[in-house]
Amino acid sequence: MNLRLLAWKSLKSRRSTAILTIFSIAVSVLLLLGVEKVRVNAQSSFANTISGTDLIVGARSGSIQLLLYSVFRIGNATNNITWKSYQDIAQLKGVKWTIPISLGDSHRGFRVMGTSRDYFSVYQYGEKRTLKFSSGIQFEGVFDAVIGSEVANSLNYSIGDEVIISHGTGSTSFAQHKDKPFVISGVLKHTGTPVDRTIHVSLAGIEAMHVNWQGAIKKRKASKALTESNLQPESITAFLVGLDSKIISFKMQRYINEYSPEPLLAIFPGIALHELWSLMSVAEKALLIISLFVVLASLTGMLAVSLAGLNERRREVAILRSVGASHWHIMGLLVTETVLLTIAGILMGVTLLYSSIWLAQPMIEKTYGLFIPITAPNIRELGMVSMLLATSFIIGLVPAYQAYKNSLADGMSIRS
Amino acid sequence: MLESVPKSPLIALKKVEFAWHAKANSTIKSANLCVEELEHVFIQGASGSGKSTLLNIIGGIVTPQSGQVEIVGQDFCQLKELQRDRVRADHIGFIFQQFNLIPYLSILENVMLPCRFSKLRRENAIERSGSIIKEAVYLLDRLYSKGRFSFHRTTGELSVGQQQRVAAARALIGQPQLIIADEPTSSLDYDAREAFMGLLFDEITLSGSTLLYVSHDPTHQHLFDRVVDMSVINPHSEHDL
Q: Which domain holds residue A317?
């Protein structure tokens, strides 16, 4: 009978405390690896929000603000860009394509974005993936709308349904463009990006809905009729730029930033995404630290249980000593027990993690737009687990040393 | 009764001094004991006379502050702790007063336990019966009435008398040279005590072991070759009785 078997049988005889200890380690492993998995996937999903776009151009503000409102539909622009400036830049040599973005309205909490038809063919996310329709087609008429998958799912919309757009971006609005309802012409496939939560309409549609409106207030009398000429936008919120060659991107950025007719800002999406993620890394680190403390708490719990049980095990230690066990055997037995408990806790924690991911995957994707794939643990996760195992070994030395001290004092005398 | 030192004693203690703590009084002071091979020696002493300490010294669990301790020809004072552990594992079988068994192991696993720590006893067991498990079953069969119950069950359900038989089988497995019994019958009633002593003597005679039996109860003195009082072994003890 080897030491591992002896440790296993000893643990089996104290199964209720052993199971509780294993469970507390499992929960901490679940938390530690869960936070890591969410972090890694959130980061990659975040970085995949936009791709293939070389520059994002908006009115001069901050790069993160521009990224937030143009890509993530969070917050608002401080100023608009005139249609003329947009046209100037779009026609520059080296510019392959541009996508105008016009924001400011919403529908039941989902942002409405005015754009061109090119959006559906050139906009890319993830690994250079273009948008695909799950049903319907892109907008053709002025009052056609294309909705993201999440909008369709949450509001149970399908092709042909009417959408009344509200002025402003809140989920409750007092100014609704009830006079000009939009009709859904297409529903986009799921992308896992803010596109899923967006209602896309044509720039002409945005203009059309604001005809006869003064700011956020509808004029009492309709003074203008909808004509081709008054559907030409005077300004847009931002635009995305694709270049013929990446080599000219710095030159183009400098040109736009120094554009004299109006103050503009051009940003590289990749760099801005990185800056934004760095801001969030504080929260990410805090989460990791909390999970590390949970791990520490569970290991301390295991240590407390082990130390508390030692007094009752003095007899067992004395018997083992009498049949020839050395101090090393006794210490080995206690450390083996701790390591066995930790291994069992890790296995249970990993099982819990994967079953939770499997169960919660659709819900997380639907609620947060974050897809967490079931993948093998990465090097960092394996490193964390190995650190946990190494720490349990060190922690196991504490009761082992205490047992050694006890057995020195007790000898083979078994008094109770 | 003073001990004369024989040529090849199994146990030889000379002027042994031992205190559990540096500041405590010596539990063992100027102790002498000599036990020859195959002898069955009864050590009588009241509680607190240093019997258990003496057994810890003979078992190599503790080393005396001064004096000589020779067990199975090995000078314990010169050996390192691990080497003493090895001598104990190879050559000594212990039976205690009670709580002798590991509760989470089966009867059979308890009996086979010393073979886990001693290659010599493992080899002896295999040589005699073919395998450790066969040797354990053989010993248990001899100490119990054959086939009365499964040896695979845990020891928790056994009576104290039955537990002592398992402890005796464990002490005897692999034929160690020395069996040390520390008040093994004091928890047993009269019938169980008599039955246990009979079986123990039969087995020790059969296995050719030396027996060192420690008790405060003189009832079974007549079964032994020699009776030694603790006051003779440890005449100058300052131990607080």
A: 3-46+280-412
Same domain as A79, residue A14 = no
Residues of A in contact with B97 (CB under 8 A): 414
Cβ–Cβ below 8 Å for A322 and B117: no
Same domain, A77 and A155: yes
Q: Is there a contact between A319 and B100 if contact means CB atoms under 8 Å apart? A: yes
Mutate to test the interface with B, among A315, A316, A319 (most CBs of B within 10 A): A319
Q: How far apart are CA B19 and CA B145, in angstroms?
A: 44
**Residue B56 and residue A412: Cβ atoms within 8 Å?**
yes
Note whether residue A272 is domain-resident: no
Quick one: pLDDT at residue B1?
Answer: 43
CA distances from B41 to A163, A194, B180, B222, B231 (A): 104, 90, 10, 11, 15
Residues B207 and B21: beta-carbon distance below 8 Å: no
Chain segment A57-68, per-residue pLDDT in tens: 999 988 999 998
Number of domains chain A contains: 2
Q: For residues A363 and A382, state if they share a domain.
A: yes
The answer to whether the Cβ–Cβ distance between A1 and B112 falls below 8 Å is yes
Any domain includes A275:
no
Please name the member of B61, B105, B116 whose beta carbon is closest to the beta carbon of A412.
B61
Are A209 and A333 found together in one domain? no
What SS3 class is residue A166?
A: strand
pLDDT tens sequence across A163-184:
888 876 655 555 666 677 899 9
| pLDDT tier, B241 (very low <50, low <70, confident <90, very high otherwise) | very low
Q: Quick check: is A372 in a domain? A: yes
Amino acid code (one letter) for A23: F
Could you give the CA distance from residue B197 to residue B195 in angstroms, rounded to a whole number?
A: 6
> How close, in Å, is residue A411 to chain B by CA atoms?
6
Q: Are residues A77 and A225 in the same domain?
A: yes
A108 touches chain B (CB under 8 A): no
Question: How many angstroms separate the most distant Cα atoms in chain A?
Answer: 106
pTM of the model: 0.74
The interface predicted TM-score of the complex, written ipTM, equals 0.86
